[in-house]
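Example 3.2
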Amino acid sequence: MRILTYVLLVGGAITIMSSTTREAGFSIGNKPGDLAPRIGLLQNEGCLNFNNDSTEYVLLQFWAAYDATSRAENVRLYNEIQKRADNKLKMVSVSFDEFASVYNETVKLDNLSAANTYQEKSGASSSLYKEYGLDAGFKNFLIDKNGVIVATDITPQQLSKII
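Structure, written as tokens:
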């Protein structure tokens, strides 16, 4: 009889707790559907804001000169975006090269625009690296004008289909 009473009390408590939970909303993270983590100071440029009226999407590409795959993908995506005539998409490219000389030379060699290319001088030890979950490798994030991640690790071909 005691066990039955205990089971009924626990069951009732679980039912009450589950019926009073609030509706789920956006969470900050690095998966599609999450709000993109805020990006703080990069080269003293201030904070990058994803709430932009002039563009519908921001493609946030992380890379480093020492990672050939991420560097090549950065160039491919940059070139694809340069072909676009519309104003729907802006690319922000963030390098995790710790040395300015390596970063500057890579930007020059890859013919990237310095206007939307930034260097995170702290490299893999930066909070940005951790917040975007780059331990498993560099990625890119397509973020809408509300700051919500729409897609990750997209290729130039997928980018054309989405936008």
